[in-house]
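Chain and conformation:
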Amino acid sequence: MHFEGKINIKQKRSEVWAFLIDAEAVSQCMPGLESIEIVTPNKKFRALGALGLGTVKIKMNSDVEWVELDAPNRATMKMNGTAPGSSIDVASEMLLADGADGSTDMEWSAEVKVLGTIASLAARLMKPVTQKLTGQFFTCVKKKLEK
């Protein structure tokens, strides 16, 4: 599945970059996050979170790694999450550019592969759930950065 979006954040690019690559900072905006462990600062972390797909709630352990960091322009990330009988692999990219009046324009994309038990649920529910969670995430990011 492919997801993408654009957002404008009324904050300079260096501040947006610093927030988004800081796992502890950005974790404040991750819906369903239960715990986070920093493996390598600004590089690798592990997370435990819950994802609701309809009436089913799934707890997932995830390993997340920034693969490429071209500060403050572009970053790519990979994530592997596991739940009983299931797994999710994500490859994502964010591009930051200067926006109007000192703001930052961000484009993001993600390729998501779901395997196992939750794949049948994901086929029907992943897109609307992802859109909802992405909306919550970016609303929080904007609130934290635009204060």
About this structure: The CA atoms of residues 10 and 101 lie 8 Å apart.
